[in-house]
Amino acid sequence: MSGWEPVRRTRAFEEVIAQIELRIAGDGLTVGDRLPAERHLAEQLQVSRSSVREAMRVLETLGVVSSQAGRGPDAGAVLISKPAEALTDLLRLHLGLSSLSLDEVVDARLMIEQWSAAHASVHGADLSVLAAALERMERATTAEEFVEHDTAFHVGIAEASGNRLIAAIMLSLRDSLRRYAVEAVERLGDTAGLMADHHRIYRAIAAGNPAEASAAVETHLRYAYPDISPALRPPEHRAGLAGS
To answer: What is the model's pLDDT at position 232?
Structure first.
């Protein structure tokens, strides 16, 4: 019986990554723990040091380790936790390559933010981060400054939901859209309408009303992206609002 293909030989650095993954799961390694030094790891796994270095570069790009030069107890990569940075880089690249459309990113953001706002409203979460972001948005003097605090507001909603993965995904979505957001706020000029939407979202969450919080987020994003997601746009949308 024909049709079988030779099994692809696994590259050594992939095996190194697989072994590290097994040790993290099996030994309970966590953030802050240090992996063996490059030479020791190569000897224990019986691979070349270049394979270990390549594996570490991949894991560093993924936000799993931070490689640090050193000797003795200071040698070896340290396990870290920065999933949002890796997601942001990947999203930005795929947007640039047009393998993901802006519509798809905005649609994903709509689903995530509605869920986050609804859950934040019933968890009795600390909303001081949201309140501070609102105040800073009011005082912002440039589009870049406004978007910085706008991002803090929306990511704060995701964090208030109590789900760390959702918060990491939300941060990556907002960061990947930062350039588009700044350009949109610059075109708009007046951010009064955006601020009104933000305050409406905040009041609904603070009042513990998940349905209203979800609806406020949907209304805001439908108005904020009238040209990007026309299928979501209500007929009476406020022309020109974008980017938040």
So the answer is: 53
d(Cα 163, Cα 50) in Å, to the nearest integer? 37
Pairwise CA distance, residues 78 & 89, whole Å: 21
The tokens for 30 are 């966590």
> CA of 152: how far to CAs of 7, 142, 214, in Å?
48, 16, 18
Could you list the mean pLDDT of each consecutive 10-residue stretch along the chain, which spans 244 residues? 55 87 81 87 90 89 76 72 73 74 84 95 92 96 95 95 89 83 85 94 97 94 71 45 44
What predicted TM-score, i.e. pTM, was given to this entire model? 0.70
The type of residue at 53 is R
Segments of 36-93 assigned E as strands: 65-66, 78-79
Residues 167 and 155: their CA atoms lie apart, in Å, by 6
Token pair 């570069």 in the structure block, residue: 57
Task: Give start and end residues of each alpha helix (H) in 102-163.
Answer: 102-122, 128-139, 143-160
What is the rounded distance in angstroms from the CA atom of residue 86 to the CA atom of residue 94? 12
- The Cα-based distances of 212 to 85, 119, 128, 148, 158 in angstroms read 31, 12, 20, 25, 16
* DSSP code for 219: H
> Which of 106, 243, 133 shows the shortest CA–CA distance to 188?
243
Q: What is the pLDDT of residue 243?
A: 46
Scanning the structure block, which residue is given the tokens 């009795």? 124
Residues 6+ away with beta carbon under 8 Å from 26: none
